[in-house]
Amino acid sequence: MIKRQWIRRARRTLLAAGATAALAAGLLTATAAPSQAATQGPCDIYAAGNTPCVAAHSTTRALYGAYNGPLYQVKRASDNATKDIGLLSAGGYADAAQQDSFCANTSCVITVIYDQSPKHNNLTQALRGHWPGPAENGNDNLANAFEAPVTVGGHKAYGVYVAPGTGYRNNNTNGIATGDQPEGMYAIFDGTHVNGGCCFDYGNAETTGNDDGNGTMEAIYFGTSTGWGSGSGTGPWIMADLENGLFSGVNRGVNTGDPTINHRFTTAIVKGGPNHWAIRGGNAQSGGLSTFYDGVRPNDTGYNPMKKQGAIILGIGGDNSNTGQGTFYEGVMTQGYPSDATENAVQANITAAGYNSGSTSTGTLTPGSRVSLKATTSPCCTSHYLRHNSADTKVVISSVNSASSATDKANATWIVRAGLANTSCLSFESADKPGQFLRHFNYQLYLNMDNGGTSFAQDATFCPTAGNSGVGTSFQSSNFPTKYLRHYNYTAYIAGNGGTNAWDNTASWAQDTSWLTAAPWN
Ligand code: AHR
User: Fold this and answer.
1) What is the pLDDT of residues 81-111, one digit of tens each?
2) Annotated active-site residue in 100, 206, 212, 243
3) Which among 219, 257, 312, 483 could bridge 201 via Cys, Cβ 3.0 to 4.6 Å?
4) Where is the Alpha-L-arabinofuranosidase B arabinose-binding domain (predicted)?
5) What predicted TM-score, i.e. pTM, was given to this entire model?
6) So where are the chain's domains?
7) What is the DSSP secondary structure assignment for residue 504, as one 8-state letter?
8) May I ask the CATH architecture of the domain 34-354?
9) Which of 319, 320, 322, 323 has most ligand 1 atoms within 8 Å of CB, for mutation?
């Protein structure tokens, strides 16, 4: 009797959840994102569908309407102190200002992503596993806490930016599916920050940290890897990492039913039970979910029945392969195989939450805005802008104007980021090469992929000062404070006002190191 009442109540809640969320999603197309917290979170909807969350991770918002605990913990470089980052209100959005003030004038990494479910399956730094071999010791990197700024419901928040080498894990979980038990999971990823490395995953993996054979993991993979399988187009694809294989459908290899999906905020779903699994996905900012595969287990040995071990990974493969990259905002794992209807209601809740890119088009040196940086040296270069080359990784200046090609304009546009090594300074991410930053190496400027390391962060951090020529802004190298971002012979360096390198030449140094912050070309 009590059970029947509970089921009736659960059904009512689920219907109400779907209706409220669908209504909110409909309204969203006409109005700005709501600023109030949802009364229900995705995990309330999964619970009502009788598939409760057994892990709920997010650095941006509460995943239960009643959750009021910490979302994640950061550690700052200046004194190794840690701080939990919580919510603005119960069931609401992250209080990003806590991170901003705690990490001011230094840098911070994300040390713990708390599990909001009652299972306490927190994610922490992954330890080096089987891959790339026993000779390699040490742990994965932790994510820079400032590298994935967004707004959610109009509130500033930070995602988990996984550069290659970054990874989180929990090998000692409670309540996560093992063996052939059914489970579901979704995650929200940045569809523009991907690569083909192995393996940017979120979900169920080996508790040993090793590759324990086919079927020992079941995680969402997101990226452009074609090493095991792929979908149609050029990717990225949502695939299921089932160990020794990224599956886009029933076959190992290409399954054209799994489309390229690259929304700025992409909802990715994998779920699996006895000889049945599915891939689903959609745009986390609007609309519903589509099903890309729904059928039996892959027709390859070892995947039926599954032998899931129940660890949780984020950003890495089951054996800790860590060359993948991506950005994670929120995700959950459930007990039981969620119905499509439950997931559709969760998607409506997600679109109603109001994810938005942190980038604006203001042309100011504010983190999140897009800028172009104009040289001030007359007469050579006043129509020249700082840009990366297309053919190689060098950073140069060249003339850009309204008639320039789209490529030239894109190459000369930067997204201002909080300094990777010091939040009171700045870093510059390429607007057309997400994840790649302006950095010096041997005093020359290049555009390189952030590898998550501290040296890279230092080399990619510049502190703005008044222009050395009295005009505009100069950018002091964070780790070589006597050197400033300079163009010399149309190539970019960090240069001192006199020194041993040709580009330290004192002639025109003040003008060559002074830049105007201009509206973005792209
Ligand atoms: O299944 C793809 C990858 O293969 C897994 O993530 C990893 O454990 C193995 O290297």
Assistant:
1) 999 999 999 999 999 999 999 999 999 999 9
2) 243
3) 219
4) 376-516
5) 0.87
6) 34-354, 370-518
7) G
8) Sandwich (2.60)
9) 319
